[in-house]
Design a protein that fits this description.
Bound molecules: NADP nicotinamide-adenine-dinucleotide phosphate
Pfam family, one: adh_short
Strand content: 5-15%
Number of strands: 12
Radius of gyration: 21 Å
Subcellular location: Lipid droplet; Secreted
CATH architecture of the largest domain: 3-Layer(aba) Sandwich
CATH topology of the largest domain: Rossmann fold
Protein name: Polyprenol dehydrogenase
InterPro entries: NAD(P)-bd_dom_sf (IPR036291), Sc_DH/Rdtase_CS (IPR020904), SDR_fam (IPR002347)
Helix content: 40-55%
CATH class of the largest domain: Alpha Beta
Oligomer: single chain
CATH superfamily of the largest domain: NAD(P)-binding Rossmann-like Domain
Largest sheet: 8 strands, mixed
GO cellular component, one term: extracellular region
Shape: globular
Length: 414
């Protein structure tokens, strides 16, 4: 009985939310964008910017003079989009870069290639997403909705954060815009079963990934404010929009959707308007941690404001982003993301740093202590930077152990 309910409840919740959104859209016009300031000299990355709302967002930002990098996993489609936007906007600074959000390795490679360009970064639009895909895993073994919609963007944002911070100014912050959905209201986040192993529901998985994005955005903004960083992070809900996102609906639902979409769904340009607004509007300067729907601030689900849940998800996400793509002493570790409460997550990439991870994975406390001490000493000696001031001043290897162990005690996704 329970597995049946666990399967059906997310479906019912998702469709009820859909009906509610459609009633709203029937009664309210789509938000009209105000005149936005020019964005000359600003650089934006738009994930999934080659089609749907991502395309419209890229197009609009380019028309404002933004240098737009479309990050997507279909090169041909991306290059066509670039040409089209260049033609429509008359703006040449539009380019495509390959990014597969279903691969943490690809996310890292994308960031490396972007950094190699030496461009600043002022706007990051975490737009890409998939919905209702039958049970499937990402390259790293995560449930697809969670891994692609949420975890890929979590890593991308964290790896780009230093660039966003450097490009931001107190009077003109860099902006992170993350596209969630009303389905997050029906999302349930089970930290012990993020991969939906106990009973899989693609409806539940999509809603969960969208709730995770809201939790992530709020927590990220808290961290940015705590450091006084000139970066804001907001989450947007585009409403129900007629795009390819619905391609995985079952055939009867596809049939029913067609006429409804014609009448009540927003167009991709209308759907993208709130993201464009969040990316460029002067009145949002310095405002972060908002849930924006139809151009207005709205209250998101009660659970999205749960600070403990936000923090726990952050910590768990850091742990999950531990890479398994290269080897050291036979263990597959490449770079390590540390969750440091109240501090910036740090990406440890040197072999010495990885050694900490390896020794912890091997669960050998005695092996760990001299390594940790060695890393601390060598790090100070060669000037390489620990990820936060707290680490730089850390002299007690036991303290280091307690901080990193929550990352490394797990070697496979949960
Ligand atoms: N449509 C709606 O009613 C609605 C409602 C609420 C929220 N949303 C959200 O809005 C966002 C945009 O969706 P949309 O409606 O515009 O759908 P869409 O037309 O299907 O666009 C989805 C985009 O995501 C990209 N993408 C998919 N898998 C990817 C991967 N592995 N790596 C990189 N990019 C990938 C696609 O790029 P490629 O073409 O390169 O694969 C595509 O550009 C999504 O986050 C969605 O959840 C949509």
């Amino acid at each position: 009985m329970w597995p049946v309910l666990a399967f059906i409840l997310p479906v019912i919740r998702l469709y009820l939310i859909g009906v509610k959104v459609l009633i709203y859209q029937m009664l309210h016009k789509s938000f009209t964008l105000p005149v936005l300031p020019r964005q000359n000299g600003r650089v934006a990355i738009v994930t999934g910017g080659a089609r749907g709302m991502g395309y419209e967002t890229s197009q609009h930002l380019a028309s404002l003079g933004t240098h737009v990098v479309i990050a997507g996993n279909e090169e041909e489609e991306g290059l066509v989009a670039v040409k089209k936007i260049q033609k429509e906007s008359g703006h040449k600074k539009v380019e495509f870069m390959y990014l597969d959000l279903a691969s943490l390795k690809s996310v890292r490679q994308f960031v490396q290639r972007f950094k190699a360009k030496g461009l600043p970064l002022h706007i990051l639009v975490n737009n890409a997403g998939v919905m209702l895909v039958p049970e499937r895993k990402t390259e790293d073994g995560f449930e697809l909705h969670f891994g692609l919609n949420y975890l890929g963007h979590f890593l991308l944002t964290n790896l780009l954060l230093a660039g966003l911070r450097d490009s931001g100014q107190s009077r003109r912050c860099s902006r992170i815009i993350t596209v969630s959905s009303a389905t997050h209201y029906g999302g349930r986040l089970d930290l012990n079963d993020l991969q939906g192993r106990s009973c899989y529901s693609s409806h539940g998985a999509y809603s969960q990934s969208k709730l995770a994005l809201v939790l992530f955005t709020y927590h990220l903004q808290e961290r940015l404010w705590a450091r006084g960083d000139p970066v804001t992070a907001n989450v947007v809900d585009p409403g129900m929009v007629d795009t390819d996102l619905y391609q995985n609906l079952c055939s009867p639902a596809q049939l029913a959707k067609k006429p409804v979409a014609k009448l009540l769904f927003r167009t991709p340009a209308e759907g993208a308007s709130t993201a464009v607004y969040a990316a460029a509007a002067s009145e949002l300067e310095g405002h972060g941690g908002l849930y924006l729907y139809n151009g207005q601030k709205k209250i998101s689900s009660a659970s999205s404001y749960d600070k403990q849940l936000q923090e726990k998800l952050w910590t768990k996400s850091c742990a999950m982003n531990m890479c398994r793509n290269s080897t050291l002493n036979g263990l597959r570790v490449n770079s390590i993301l540390l969750p440091l409460t109240n501090h910036e997550p740090g990406f440890l990439t040197s072999p010495a740093h990885c050694a900490i991870g390896c020794s912890l994975i091997s669960r050998s406390r005695s092996a760990f202590i001299p390594i940790a001490k060695g890393v601390l000493d060598s790090s100070k000696a060669d000037g390489s930077r620990f990820p936060s001031a707290a680490w730089a001043n850390q002299t007690d290897p036991f303290e280091v152990l307690t901080r990193v162990s929550c990352v490394f005690h797990r070697s496979s996704p949960s």
